[in-house]
Amino acid sequence: MSDLSGKRALVTGGGSGMGAAIARALADAGATVVISGRRMEPLAELAATSPGMLAMTADVTDEASVKALFKRITSEVGELDIVVANAGAAESAPFHRTSLDLWRQMLDVNLTSVFLTFQQALAGMMKRKQGRLIAIASTSSLKGYAYVSAYSAAKHGVLGLTRSLALEFADTAITVNAVCPGFTLTPMLERSIETIVEKTGKSRDEAIATLTKTSPQRRFVLPEEVAQSVLYLCGPHSASVTGQALSISGGEV
Ligand code: NAP
């Protein structure tokens, strides 16, 4: 296991699901971890479980809010070594019913959020020429799925951003990678299961089977499995891994 003692990390969307599992794994490895999101309640609840975690609210779609978050982290915690852009949201709709509003929401929360977060993170990392940037992308970054064209377009964009940034910083000790989970057991997936039940009249078990059948392993990914891959990308043995999309999907893609 990586020893991250003395390292400082930020996990956006760290109050629930994958972000919470990533924050726990980083804190267990010895890092000081700032978790952020819009709602203080889940953040405070998680932070109370570990002395190495601090809760700070921020909206990753709002430039001023992201800037204020990084300013606060620099003054209260110090320069960040690790930034995990995990916050995101998934709304589904057939393409012909995808409004411009929904399209923009999906791009804002899943792609522009990574741009804003990484840009602020790099301001500090560039000074020290070291750092780890990780985007929680998706198998939707690597293949299409019906009824989530806006989400998938945004997640494909995250990969383009990751690969380009990795090249821009290849002559430093800053690495930039994307982790691409398949369907993972989190509150977001719970909402997707509910939507399928609601919109198709399928039972919960049938809805689950519809989703798990996309994975050759015929199961959902666990948030802890994603967290361990993030831990690897933060540790000393991944220094030459950059610009990569690490698929955690039971062989789906
Ligand atoms: P989740 O439990 O719904 O977590 C999403 C987190 O993002 C929440 O903590 C939420 O906190 C935060 N968030 C949403 N909008 C935000 C905003 N505007 N500003 C700041 N924080 C915001 O879902 P999850 O499954 O763990 O998702 C984590 C990441 O994994 C996402 O990027 C998602 O696209 C990706 N992913 C998920 C799956 C899956 O099957 N679950 C598969 C592949 C990829 P607040 O509501 O308090 O802001």
UniProtKB/TrEMBL annotation:
Q: Which residues form the Ketoreductase domain?
A: 7-182
The UniProt entry, under Pfam families, shows: adh_short_C2
Which SMART domains does the record cross-reference, listed alphabetically?
A: PKS_KR
Top-level taxon of origin: Bacteria
* Gene Ontology biological-process annotations: monocarboxylic acid metabolic process
Task: Give the UniProt family note.
Answer: Belongs to the short-chain dehydrogenases/reductases (SDR) family.
User: What is the protein name given in its UniProt record?
Assistant: SDR family oxidoreductase
